[in-house]
Write a structure and sequence with these properties.
The protein is α+β, with helices and mostly antiparallel strands. The protein is 16% helix and 32% strand. The chain is globular and about 55 Å long. The structure holds zinc ion (ZN).
């Protein structure tokens, strides 16, 4: 197994609580680029074995981590992919994955501060898939072979912008700066007992808001990748936000406020810790 990190903009592997600069471990400077590293994820198992006390750069707990995949070419989001969340949203279950884009400019790391674009900004804890190889028309049985790893994501959503007009503006409402915290590590699929059954949760200011398991996904990861690649090619580093369980603010009549902290967690993967601050809204037309 491996855990791929971004430490000071450079790819690193986590081992025994320490980070190990990937270029140093491999002897190849090009592997310092996190986007190169994710595209060569097939080599990371062996490189992780090469980490030793002599390659350790510091404690992961003391490092400032960036997004493990900082510049994805495509970022897919899947809406209404947990039955209980579709129910709380008052929406019909979609007959196929309800797909939108989070524009890549919103992707940030696990401890980024999130500027709130208004009074209706919401949290959505999600398992995020990172693709490791260019692929199209992937058979569901072959899907895990094109996955570089899994991590956590927050699909932060400005409900006012998202729900402006009919049809709604999913892509823009979910793409303000820093609306895509990800990390803390990109974790290899073999690190999970079952990559289709990962516990995840979200706390806002210490209050548990969301808690579920990814086995409740209506369209699980193999179905999502099979469906998306039947239409689009996917590229190394592409991300898929797989959907959020119930417990979002919109259903509670309560949104994020400046000064609040969002803690998002998942088994094996770890936690995101994102404070909120006052931001700038969309241009009033
Ligand atoms: Zn979402």
């Amino acid at each position: 197994m491996y855990r791929l990190l971004n430490v000071n903009g450079r790819a690193a592997l986590e081992r025994d609580g320490h980070w190990h600069d990937l270029a140093m471990v491999s002897g190849e400077e090009s592997l310092a680029d996190p986007m190169v590293a994710v595209g060569r994820s097939g080599e990371l198992h062996a490189l992780s074995e090469r980490c030793s006390p002599s390659t350790a750069g510091g404690l992961v707990a003391e490092a400032v981590l960036g997004a493990p995949v900082p510049e994805p070419r495509q970022v897919f989001g899947i809406g209404l992919n947990y039955r209980d969340h579709a129910g709380e949203s008052g929406m019909e279950l979609p007959p196929a994955p309800l797909t939108f884009t989070k524009f890549p400019s919103c992707i940030v790391g696990p401890t980024a501060t999130v500027p709130l674009s208004g009074g209706a900004v919401d949290w959505e804890a999600e398992i995020v898939v990172a693709i490791g190889a260019k692929c199209s028309s992937v058979a569901p049985s072959d899907v895990w072979g094109v996955v570089a790893g899994l991590m956590l994501g927050q699909d932060i959503s400005d409900r006012e912008v998202q729900l402006t007009g009919t049809p709604p503006q999913f892509c823009l409402g979910k793409s303000f700066p820093c609306f895509g915290p990800t990390g803390p590590a990109l974790v290899s699929v073999d690190a999970f007992d079952d990559p289709n059954d990962i516990g995840l949760w979200c706390d806002v200011n210490g209050e548990r808001m969301q808690e579920s398991r990814s086995r409740h996904l209506i369209f699980p990861i193999p179905a999502l990748i099979g469906y998306l690649t039947s239409i689009c090619s996917l590229y190394p580093g592409d991300l898929i936000f797989t959907g959020t369980p119930s417990g979002v603010g919109m259903a509670r009549g309560r949104f994020l406020a400046p000064g609040e902290v969002i803690v998002t967690g998942a088994e094996v993967i770890g936690e995101l810790n994102n404070p909120c601050t006052t931001g700038k809204g969309a241009l009033a037309l």
